[in-house]
Amino acid sequence: MTKLTNLPAWQQLQQHYEDTKDIHMREMFAQDSQRFEKFSLKLNDILFDYSKNRVTQETMDLLLQLAEQSDVAGLRERMFSGETINHTEHRAVMHAALRNKSEEPAYANGVRIDEEIKTELDRVKFLAEKIRSRHWLGHSNQPITDVVNIGIGGSNLGPLMVTEALHPYSIHDLEIHYVSNLDENHINNTLESLNPDTTLFIIASKSFTTQDTLVNAVTAKEWLMQKLHSESDLHKHLVAVTSNVKMAVEFGVKEENIFKMWDWVGGRYSLWSAIGLSIVIAIGAENFDALLEGAHEVDDHFRTAPLEQNIPVIMALIGIWYNNFYNAESIAVLPYDQNMHRFPAYLQQADMESNGKGCDREGASVDYSTGPILFGEIGIASQHAFYQLLHQGTKLVPADMLAPISNYHCIATHHRALMSNIFAQTEALMMGKTEDEVRAELTQQGMPEKELEDLLPYKIFPGNRPTNTFLFYTLDPKTLGSLIAMYEHKIFVQGAVWNLNSFDQWGVELGKVLARNILDEINTATPVTNHDCSTNGLINYYLSLKPIKDPN
Ligand code: G6Q
User: What distances in angstroms separate CA 172 from CA 75, 127, 269, one per listed residue?
Assistant: First the structure.
């Protein structure tokens, strides 16, 4: 495979960057009144406007050539057809099959998987319905009122994000809680107000070996046993989702309460599988089907639309333009829908765990920048916090803004004000405010000359700050499914261009092993000397004070 930086399109993009880097977006808009029509795409309810980017038609053409020359389409086909594209773990990458309801058979690594997917989804829906209809009873014959999902990373962030985002579609006499942190505050705070008689735990762990989840699961089991008296009642309060059925059974989960997942679903791509059990309990089977349907429509679009009309492809290429040619270090994701408040955190894992890598698919170190630092928060709140840096800071931070045109419970006064903010921000970021404009504004306000000249430099906004805007009718299950899948495939395309394996996560595995070793050392409580002097010092300081705080 030709090295990325030797591809003709890459080299032409480098020259094109030199030629165009000083053109302000103001000029681009002034020269082309059709820019919005030219640089926006629509898929069902979702409008994707990418016109406020530092791109011309030539930029887009070259970026599309880059996608062709790096054979994005080839890797895409290999993924959809179930080849082992996660080569470092010898796994296929088949999360798209989880949302494909067509009768077409699906294969992972040559093995048929669609029937198993359907069986497991039916089991998930059956359990969820039993809980929602109050037919699943705890040990004292009371229906379940609280469900606690214990899991971390991919076994937490997706279900948590979706449950929050679809709050208006959720059942209201049932609370769903998420515990991920090993810090006992998380589980203690959660259990504080719960009643073991009416609480059901889902232990969500693909591997069933993750320390954080297992420690929390043991605490949950002990908490249940204080009230249950007999282990034979545990199955009324404990279910699991895992690909490691043996370990779950050993832990004490009844086999019929175990929902399967497979090695061809990566943790961060798993909300569509039984890992989404807590979502189905919250929103019901019909809404979950709509979530899957929304994602499936994007899968179809991604697989079949020409590259220049392909939303995930365009999202990815614009990201590469800033990451690799403008050397932008980060991207911001800024939803203007309060229910999407966990969306940036979810994407942070999806993106940074997938493409935060420096070794290419042939095992060589890359000599170009890969995945960006992704951060974000609710847009409105961020306007009163870090937007200052976006407007006037020295760093280029391309941003994605997302907003619903209407809301489930829409109050016109709120919503119109909300929308005026997103439009104002993207315009201000793009246009900025020139010295002449500031001077005219302050003069009109009657500011004395000297004061005006002193203040002037601080009130100038350079503008030319790029944004993508996503507008969708309302954040319903189908639209949310589509948005998530768009970002999943964006990440895929970037990984394909950067020649990365976006589906392993050796960086995460390292932490898991190291922590286990140090835990053994801490448990023996004797001073250590085998680490670097900082780590030795910290562990020994902790051990010297531990008896004061922790009599155990
Ligand atoms: C996701 C990662 C990681 C994983 C967690 C939890 O893609 O692999 O975030 O989801 O470490 O792992 P388990 O589900 O195996 O407990």
Answer: 43, 18, 27
